[in-house]
Amino acid sequence: MTYKVFGILKRPDGMAFEQFKKWWLEVHVPRVMKWPGLVGYDVNFALNENEPFDGVGIVCFDNKEAAEKVFQTLEGSSARSAAIAESSRNVIFLAEEVVIVPREKAHQG
């Protein structure tokens, strides 16, 4: 089973959508890549810059304990604090994955 941290962010007021995407990829991703126990990481950007949120980051862990403890580490707490400070709105939460259609099966068509 996979456990995930979801970070859903909206860019700060006055920041261009493309600038926010660049910040996420060039500044925030390196912070998250330092998290202990990380086994996967996706960033998904809205197709329309007028959506309520601009992107969703999904960080994967192999076990619940690693996901729950990540924000107790310096790397986890500093990345979380930065994401909160550098966005106008955010939602950050832990989740347990339930797979309905595995990716491998979906691509076999």
Describe the protein in words.
- The chain is of the alpha+beta class and 109 residues long.
- It has four helices and four strands, in the order E-H-E-E-H-H-E-H.
- The chain has helices at 17-32, 64-69, 74-85, 103-108; strands spanning 3-10, 38-45, 55-61, 89-96.
- The relative contact order is 0.27.
- The model has no long low-confidence stretch (mean pLDDT 95).
Rg result: 15 Å
Helix content: 25-40%
- SSE sequence, one letter per element: EHEEHHEH
Note the beta-strand portion: 25-35%
Query: What is the 3D form?
Result: globular
Identify low-pLDDT runs.
none
Q: Widest sheet: strand order?
A: 2-3-1-4
Beta strands, count: 4
Mean pLDDT, nearest integer?
95
The largest sheet, given as strand count, sense and whether it forms a barrel, is: 4 strands, antiparallel
Q: Give the helix/strand class.
A: alpha+beta
Number of helices: 4
Distance between the termini: 25 Å
Q: How are the SSEs placed, and which strands pair?
A:
Blueprint: E1 3-10, H1 17-32, E2 38-45, E3 55-61, H2 64-69, H3 74-85, E4 89-96, H4 103-108
Keywords:
alpha+beta; 4-stranded antiparallel beta sheet; 4 helices; 109 residues
